[in-house]
Specification:
heterodimer, A: alpha+beta, five-stranded mixed β-sheet, 10 strands, elongated, B: mainly alpha, Cytochrome C Oxidase, Chain A, two-stranded antiparallel ribbon, 15 helices, binds protoporphyrin IX containing FE, binds copper (II) ion
Chain lengths: 274, 570
């Protein structure tokens, strides 16, 4: 067994393979922008966070594979003298060094770059526009509080697939001026929006990839997320939590309007029961 | 396998030589036979699980051309994940190789409870059968994802597979937990009580440490899954609402449940789920250490550091489950905590990784098939771990959660790392199992196909995830995702290469069992105890139980330039 493998082709093949894999991966990161174009304020922060990890982790990835390739390529043949210990100091440095390095870069990343942005996403500010998003198999419904600034309460008993998709009730004062839009989320640019998310049936996830926004819709509770859309234009919601057979079709349009246009739309759109 | 020997006074060895086909090969108490039985069951389940992936990868690459409906698709991904994790990786790596190598490596004649061992195998067989049978009931198999989050999995009307299919799924999982718990108890008892004379804890091969630690982890974390499964069954059939809130509307109808919360299930599930992924990967790393040392002809670097790292990973692994739930609706402060604690794990993980890598420093490498798989494992575990850094940072996870980035990450871990460790172990111990070696040419072909296939598939999936490509989609109909989804045919082609290579393995495995070249007692010139037994090892493993006189990795020692010494040598 041992003699036959001396001077084996694998001594070349493996390092070449590992290096090719490393080079291809690094090239893919450097020469193509894989992320969907970003269109929200905190989204730029998320991208910054990802870039930081790409650099730090990329360093480890490349260094690790270079060493792997080197060790394989320079390993002795079977008739080389038996292994001689490397020495405790060198071994300690080799093991403890990278361990501490990884710990530091990852914790620094999350504490100083990640957490402040995480804070922005979950901030609660009464000045923000309040919008509600309802998820149900397999569609998204936007619910705006209307002129009174108050969401009408849900009356699940009143739910009707055709006439009352948002399960509101005429007799509730707060409901009358509420706006309900099926399959489309209309948003202002440049103004913070607080989204509260509700599900009528199973879990879904409110995901706008261009905003780097993702928040599960959980029946029984409201979940929250917050963003400032930066650029008027059309985007998409894609459901990011398996919710049944048509999960893949559970999408909706996101339309970001300049602030004045958005305000005008809010003014002119008739309420759900008006 | 029969071999004449004196029984000595071993307490665990109270039974007689089996004779006759049934007691020797079917209801055997012998840990080696049981180990092989697990391996064969895993091969069968592996064909089914991998076959499902071939089916849905075809759909993803060429939508509509695979004869697959959206109903089929969600069922196929759900069953693929479940079968692969619980019935392939668990059964081959944890149960199969664990049963085979633990007594041999610690110098015991058998497991502490051989009868229990046989029972735990024959418990999992009906479990596997029920899981497979669930495909054929009305509505098909479970379709709520391998995580089976309620309400989707709790309400029969929520998805086609959420009827009888989901009930059978839960039943099969419950059986799995029973079997796995019996197995884990046996591992712990065996390792603590039946070590040969001189085999102190710090003389155990790292493989044994990893089996020991993962058994402890399993015993601590599986009860959470048991609780979750029972509550889910009650929600489905007992009229309770542990996970079901009030006033849900399904297909236009108001449901009667009140007062539960779906988040409870997620916490329970991941309280098991996260330790479970370590249960599946640590023994692979342990085996890689043994195989690397034997074929690099040097002791592992940092034995003590590795044992420490393993315990640290196990402990921290129990308190980070919430990193699967950053955006689940859990309190955002908890998200911060779980992010920080998860990133602490990267430290012991890095320590383990550097020890693997360092074991090649000043090596004299023998490039045989087990070694190739061990070398591939180093790259897989490193690359997958780096993906973990992105996911563990909650802010970055906002973009990556439930995308193909996660799919790529965990496949590199439990798909590639665990299976490479398993293959390294099978090629390495095959001579001890059957007295023959596996074919090297086929083995190397298997390695190349596996390596190239899996690495392309799962690396590209990371990039698709960066493009925001959500997982568990039958087809990609959103505009933003088109560039990422365009890579699907490429991924599928390489997935076929990876799949085809496993067929080479199966042929090699069964062919070599009967026709492989005869192997000597210690074909790899390795140092640990199993290589002091005959190949194949007989019933009771040794005539005289071995006595241990040194560390497990005595390479670079020994007189006359021989360069190695058995653990039993003076
Ligand atoms: C450096 C070490 C690791 C870190 C920091 C890490 C981190 C993470 C995080 C944060 C997630 C959740 C991602 C999400 O759903 O958004 C995740 C998912 C996962 N990881 Fe890891 N991981 C590491 C190592 C491992 C290992 C060793 C394994 C298995 C052997 C593993 C298996 C998995 C699995 C199976 C999932 C996904 C489960 C699912 O959603 O279906 N990870 N990992
Ligand atoms: Cu969905
Ligand atoms: Cu985890």
């Amino acid at each position: 067994m041992s003699r036959r493998d001396r001077g084996s082709v694998w001594r070349f093949l493996l390092p070449v393979g590992f290096l090719a894999f490393t080079a291809a991966t690094v090239a893919a990161v450097l020469f193509k922008d894989w992320m969907p174009p970003v269109a929200s304020e905190h989204g730029k922060g998320v991208d910054g966070m990802i870039t930081y990890i790409l650099c730090a982790a990329g360093l480890i990835f490349v260094a690790g594979h270079l060493l792997l390739a080197k060790f394989i390529f320079t390993s002795g043949a079977d008739d080389a003298p038996a292994y001689k210990p490397i020495g405790n100091k060198a071994e300690m440095l080799f093991t403890i060094g990278p361990t501490i390095f990884i710990l530091l870069i990852s914790e620094i990343g999350v504490l100083f770059i990640g957490n402040p942005i995480w804070g922005q996403v979950f901030k609660e500010d009464p000045e923000d526009f309040q919008i509600e998003v309802i998820a149900k198999q397999f569609e998204w419904i936007a619910h705006y509080p209307g002129r009174d600034g108050k969401f009408g309460p849900f009356r699940m008993e009143k739910y009707d697939e055709v006439d009352n998709i948002a399960a509101l009730w005429k007799k509730d004062k707060e409901s009358r001026d509420d706006l309900v839009v099926r399959g489309k989320l209309i948003l202002p640019a440049g103004k913070a929006c607080q989204i509260r998310i509700k599900s009528f049936d199973v879990l879904h996830s409110f995901n706008i990839p261009a905003f780097r926004t993702k928040q599960d819709a959980v029946p029984g509770i409201y979940t929250k997320t917050r963003f400032v859309a930066t650029t008027p234009g059309d985007y998409e919601i894609a459901c990011a939590e398996i919710c049944g057979v048509n999960h893949y079709k559970m999408k909706a349009k996101v339309q970001v309007l300049p602030l004045e246009k958005y305000m005008k739309w809010l003014e002119e759109e008739p309420g759900f029961f008006e | 396998m029969a071999l004449t020997h004196s029984h000595g006074t071993d307490a665990a060895h109270g039974h007689d030589h089996p004779s006759g086909f049934w007691s020797k090969y079917i209801f055997s108490f012998d840990h080696k036979v049981i180990g092989v039985q697990y391996l064969i069951l895993a091969c069968i389940m592996g064909l089914i699980g991998a076959g499902l992936s071939v089916w849905f990868r075809t759909q993803l690459a060429w939508p509509g051309k695979a004869g697959m409906s959206p109903e089929n698709y969600v069922m196929a991904v759900t069953m693929h994940g479940t079968i692969m994790i619980f019935f392939v990786v668990s059964l081959s790596l944890s149960s199969g190789l664990g049963n085979f190598c633990i007594p041999l490596q610690i110098g015991a004649r058998d497991m502490a409870y051989p009868l229990l061992n046989m029972l735990s195998f024959w418990t999992i067989v009906p479990g596997a059968a029920i899981m497979v049978a669930s495909f054929f009931v009305e509505g098909g198999g479970a379709a709520g994802g391998w995580t089976s989050y309620p309400p989707l999995s709790a309400l029969p009307k929520a998805a086609p597979g959420s009827g009888t299919g989901q009930t059978l799924w839960l039943l099969a999982m419950a059986i799995f937990v029973v079997s796995f718990t019996l197995g884990g108890l046996n591992y712990v008892a065996t390792i603590l009580n039946l070590r040969a004379r001189g085999m102190t804890l710090m003389r155990m091969p790292i493989t044994i440490w990893t089996y020991f630690i993962s058994a402890v982890l399993g015993l601590l974390s599986f009860p959470a899954l048991t609780a979750a499964a029972i509550m889910l069954l009650l929600d489905r059939h007992g009229g309770t609402s542990f996970f079901l809130p009030s006033k849900l509307i399904l297909s236009g109808q108001l449901q009667t449940n009140t007062g539960g919360t779906p988040l409870l299930f997620q916490h329970l599930f991941w309280f098991l789920g996260h330790p479970e992924v370590y249960i599946l990967v640590l023994p692979a790393v342990g085996i890689a250490f043994d195989v690397l040392a034997a074929n690099a002809r040097r002791p592992v670097m940092g034995y003590k550091a590795s044992v420490f790292a393993l315990w640290a990973i196990a402990f921290l692994g129990m308190i980070v489950w919430g990193h699967h739930m950053f955006i689940s609706g859990m309190n955002p402060y908890l998200g911060k905590y779980f992010s920080i604690s998860t990133l602490i794990i990267t430290a012991p993980f890095a320590l383990l990784g550097v020890c693997l890598l360092g074991t090649l420093w000043r090596a004299r490498i023998r490039f045989n098939t087990p070694m190739l798989f061990a070398l591939g494992l180093i790259s897989a575990v490193g690359t997958g771990g780096i993906g973990g850094l992105f996911l563990a940072t909650a802010t970055a996870d906002l973009h990556f959660h439930d995308t193909y980035f996660v799919v790529g990450h965990f496949h590199l871990m439990i798909g590639v790392t665990s299976l490479m460790g398993t293959f390294a172990g099978i090629y390495y111990w095959f001579p001890k199992m059957f007295g023959r070696t596996m074919n090297e040419t086929l083995g190397k072909l298997h390695f190349v196909g596996t390596m190239v296939g899996t690495f392309v598939v799962f690396t590209v999936q990371h990039f698709q995830g960066m493009g925001g490509m959500t997982r568990r989609y039958y087809e990609y109909v959103n505009e933003y995702v088109k560039p990422a989804a365009a890579l699907n045919p490429l991924v599928t082609i390489f997935a076929f290469i990876a799949f085809g290579s496993q067929l080479i393995f199966l042929v090699n495995f069964f062919w070599s069992m009967f026709a492989g070249a005869k192997a000597s007692k210690n074909p790899w010139e390795a140092t640990t105890l199993e290589w002091t037994a005959e190949s194949p090892a007989g019933h009771g493993n040794w005539n005289e139980p071995p006595v241990v006189r040194g560390d497990p990795y005595r390479y670079g020692e020994g007189a006359d330039g021989k360069g190695w010494k058995l653990q039993t040598d003076a």
